[in-house]
Protein 1
Amino acid sequence: MIILGIETSCDETAASLIEADDKNIIVLSNIVSSQIALHSKWGGVVPNLAAREHLKNILPVIETALEKAEKNSADIDLIAVTNGPGLIPALLIGTTTAKALAYFWKKPLIGIHHIEGHIYANFIRDEISAISNSQFLIPKQNPNPKFPILCLVVSGGHTQLILMREHLDYEIIGETLDDAVGEAFDKVARILGLGYPGGPAVAKIADEFSSATIADEFKITLPRPMIKSANFDFSFSGIKTAVLYAVKKNQENLKNKNYISAMCQEFQTAVIDVLIHKAINAAKKYQPKTILLAGGVSANQKLREQLGLAIEKNVPNTNYKIPDIKYSLDNSAMIAVAGYFRWKKNKNKKELEKNWQSLEADASLKL
Ligand code: KG4
Ligand code: ZN
């Protein structure tokens, strides 16, 4: 079947067509219009500006997705749209557009939780993702993740360990008590004057200067909050505050490129240490067949590699699954894929034809 996926929960306007059946899940088009340039002036996403930009771009983005896939509206069997969580003005553009199209084109419509989308980015089964993942040092990639699956979700708004015993079944076994990991990256980038979005900027500097001598020169040691706690919860605001205090002690350091490098390196290492420690402990307790990485921070190369190595060392019988880089950050192919699995499980498909009326955007939608 052919599915149109639509995503507007934050600062990317995205539309995608996928073709899915029991064997293959192939992305036919994946169009993402980013608003980074618009929001970087403000140091973060401004909800009303985001909505205005989504409104301007949503129809051209959908049209391009159809053209790239060489399909037209008659070919579409299902529309899947992110209906939460996220910024409500932004979500409303995607859901309203999806509802209007579902009504005029007479298509069934499914609302998808944004994090469910990130998780299902790992279920795309096309050759391209298999090839581009293989260039990295990642052991045990399995194109068909096996259940039970332990998901490490790391995005700008979420940090969670989720146990999936089967498709669409989620048990949150731990989560952040304050900042999400992507949020911490963004805040640290702001403190260090590295702009928005901060994650890629911090990661780039940390990876460029990964020589121990630079870190030693400044003797920066950041905390690893809750690393020793017996539960699977996280806390990242303390690491960010430690960066802030260190910088405040000597503002001159902000002019020193080596200091910034050392700080980025130690921050990234501290965050990854905590994430991996908790994920491995959870794997030892719950014994999943697969550990899966999801969310925008899964684009972090060090995290992808280090988690893979930690799995091989500590729980060697567990498979490891990461999304292709182009499906790590916000996109709509992942929403369409989640839509496919929800469609398959749905026993009352007629109901979905009425969703153009009843679907609602919910800024704090629960998984
Ligand atoms: O999933 P996502 O695209 O949007 C949300 O659902 O929040 O994640 C965005 C987050 C941002 O905080 C961004 O700074 C972070 O992911 N991020 C990264 C990297 N690329 C994006 N963090 C660390 N390293 C990266 N390479
Ligand atoms: Zn996201």
Note: The first strand starts at residue 2 and ends at 7.
Protein 2
Amino acid sequence: MLQSITVQAPAKVNYRLDVVGRRPNGYHDLRMIMQRVNLCDEVTMRLVARPGIKVACGRDGVPEGEGNIAWKAARALLERTAGDQGVEIGIVKNIPVAAGLGGGSSDCAAVLLGLNELLGLGLSVEQLMEVGVKLGADVPFFVFGQTALAEGIGERLTPLVKVPSAWLVLVNPNLPVSTAWVYQNLQLTQRERLATLPNSFETVAELCAILGNDLETVTIPAFPVIDEIKRSLVGLGAAGALMSGSGPTVFGLFLDETTARQAGAVLERQRDWFVAVVETV
Ligand code: ATP
């Protein structure tokens, strides 16, 4: 029997994030277009004979015990086994933390997918998504593993099969932006919205036409540098630029690798920002 497995856990960006309503329990109804990119954490799971779950990560701001969302994923699957084995999880964190790139949710999904294999549970993608949504709203998307329209709190997923691949430059200005703070400060307005979003895109230009994120109305007034980064990316050749998720990471969409790499190199020199040139997956 397989004793250990390593899974790549990619980051995501939101090409679109509409907040369409607020639920009595404080959750928000969303409509998002979500895309994975090839900036990945590396999550290794090892089965051990002793019961218990250990998470080693070694990154400031990321809890190693029960507070780690990967720990919660492991418990949810170990609960379904009869034996008293345990699991040791090692996470090599390459995705910036609390950045709007979904790193924690992706680690969580990687553990669900990896342990399902290691433990031979045979759970379907749908079943793993059901386990995942209880752990974090973006987890089902990473289990799903395709570019998608995400609705509800993020658990109703429709695959978007025709979306062009693109080069992206990610710029994280390392600001302390908490997701909870963003949603608490969001004013729900009756903004004019497309009744439906297109479900296929021929070109990056078509994709750029629908870029939008309601959460920018909270973060940009508080942190104008987010808007400065968007402008810089466009000035350096991006076809479009947007904040991802609840921020503060901004991405620029580029038509070719060379322009993306040149823009990344310029931005990296400017300030103490995290900059990564990535491709859609
Ligand atoms: P989202 O876009 O889904 O809000 P995010 O990218 O903004 O996610 P994460 O990097 O997932 O944010 O981290 C949010 C918080 O979750 C962190 O402040 C951290 O304390 C906690 N956390 C728990 N487990 C993890 C993990 N495996 N990786 C990163 N953060 C984790």
Note: The pocket of adenosine-5'-triphosphate is lined by residues 61-63, 67-70, 91, 97-105, 107, 138, 179, 245-246 (CB under 6 Å).
